[in-house]
What does this fold into?
Amino acid sequence: MKKSIIRQIALDTETTGINSKGIFYEKHRIIEIGAIEIINRNFTGNDFHSYIQPNRSVDPKALAIHGITDTFLECKPIFSDIAINFLNYINGAELIIHNASFDIGFIDYELSMLNLNIKNISSFTTVIDTLFLSRKLFPGKKNTLDALCSRYHIKNDERGFHSALLDAKLLAKVYLSMTSFQESIDFFSNEAQKYNSNIVIKKNKNHCSSKIHMASIDENKSHKLYLKYMLKKNKKCLWYND
It folds into this structure.
């Protein structure tokens, strides 16, 4: 049976500023798009990145966040120059975006000014909002990208200024960690014990009994060394108990 291919793209944008309440009367524009391709939970290296000349100045507050100046953007392509390549790149994929309404709103606004007969990108792709997911997983906690990187022990030292491509890479790692469901497993919590008490194991008379093989002393030593290695590498290991 042929294995299905799941293509996902972690995406981030930087802009000239923030439009209040999703209303684009300030007419702020996208100045950078970064996207990381993931196929079947593996990074492919087929990434998309472009700076964009917005035909307007960058707001000082936005400049303080991403450090992208008007002078730097002067010779960069405008959105219409990169639109087709970008749309072909994301076509049919699941987009992974943190605070998706922000980025999608800006992308749809850019598309609305082109004669492409495309009202919004949701017409040919789906969107996963990691901010929504993180609030479900960690209610009441801080769920910024930096906070999630810290929570999942993802190195983000390079993140001085915001960068669409760097943030997309960090987001991709965060998403894979969030959806691995391995951040913590408390087998001894009240909820877990309640769940386990409701499990009914049904024996099938056609099943033969299995012989139990105990690990040897050497195997136990090797196993403990491996768990110690996992503890050092990941800073935690549920099964290590020295």
